[in-house]
């Protein structure tokens, strides 16, 4: 049976990645990521976070080029709430909720009426539930949430934004068991591409592919973490 072709959402051509201090992390990198869940592994400092930030930002790499198709959203490490942010702001729908409030109060403009999303409250509640959160007051200060709640709220923001590809940098850090399960369920149900940098083996077991970054470059392994670990053990035994 033939395997259906899935065009890449992100393609790296002869890319060089550099750390903020100018140190070269990866050189002559050729990779493609399509609409499937891919795990990104490697030692700390191998360039995983740098690669995700570069893909998400749209910036040009030190050398080479990156092609991007569609919209891309990044879930960063250590989610923090900026001063004055509400829950709605952190979920990426603060302006949309403000627009509905103006219209409900009879103070909305013609532009508000044209841009209003009357399904927002329903979609907001569904996104919070999918991220493992109860319905939160959109006006609640985001700083009042715990670190785990902020991470889940950031996951809900990804669901609401509906990008073509999501990039997750250590998404299960600081989460309890239910939170980790919510991340795994989000990735499993995601219809677009997902690139996940993580040390969480349980999460990585459900990937369609594992890409390992090292000083030697990038190597791709079809299958989840267990397949990858088995192949790496075979390679080390053969080298020995």
Main β sheet profile: 6 strands, mixed
Helix content range: 25-40%
Oligomer: single chain
- Unreliable stretches: 1-5
Strand content: 15-25%
From N to C, what is the helix and strand string? EEEHEEHHHHHEHEHEEH
How many distinct beta strands?
9
Please give the alpha-carbon distance between the first and last residues: 37 Å
The backbone outline, from C-alpha atoms, is elongated
SSE class: alpha/beta
How do the strands of the widest beta sheet line up side by side?
Answer: 5-6-7-3-8-9
Quick recap:
This protein has 240 residues and is α/β, with parallel strands linked by helices.
Please give a structural write-up.
The protein has 240 residues and is an alpha/beta fold. 37% of the residues lie in helices and 23% in strands. The protein has nine helices and nine strands. Strands 5-6-7-3-8-9 form a six-stranded mixed sheet, with helices on both faces. Strands 2-1-4 form a three-stranded antiparallel sheet, covered by helices on one side. Strand 8 and strand 9 form a beta hairpin. Helix 5 (120-130) crosses helix 6. The relative contact order is 0.18. The model is unreliable at 1-5 (pLDDT under 50).
């Amino acid at each position: 049976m033939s395997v259906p072709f899935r065009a890449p959402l992100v393609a790296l051509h002869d890319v060089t990645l550099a750390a903020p201090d100018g140190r070269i992390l990866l050189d002559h990198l050729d990779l493609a990521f399509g609409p499937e869940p891919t795990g990104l592994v490697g030692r700390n400092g191998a360039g995983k976070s740098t690669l995700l930030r570069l893909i998400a930002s749209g910036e040009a790499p030190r050398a080479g080029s990156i092609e991007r198709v569609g919209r891309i959203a990044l879930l960063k490490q250590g989610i923090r709430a900026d001063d004055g942010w509400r829950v709605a702001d952190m979920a990426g729908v603060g302006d949309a909720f403000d627009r509905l409030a103006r219209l409900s109060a009879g103070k909305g403009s013609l532009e508000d009426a044209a841009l209003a999303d009357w399904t927002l409250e329903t979609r907001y509640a569904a996104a919070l539930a999918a991220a493992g959160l109860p319905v939160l007051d959109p006006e609640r200060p985001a700083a009042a949430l715990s670190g785990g709640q902020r991470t889940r709220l950031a996951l809900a923001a990804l669901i609401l934004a509906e990008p073509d590809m999501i990039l997750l940098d250590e998404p299960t850090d600081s989460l309890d068991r239910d939170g980790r399960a919510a991340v795994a369920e989000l990735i499993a149900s995601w219809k677009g591409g997902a690139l996940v940098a993580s040390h969480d083996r349980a999460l990585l077991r459900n990937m369609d592919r594992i890409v390992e970054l090292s000083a030697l470059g990038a190597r791709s392994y079809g299958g989840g973490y267990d397949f990858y670990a088995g192949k790496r053990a075979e390679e080390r035994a053969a080298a020995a």
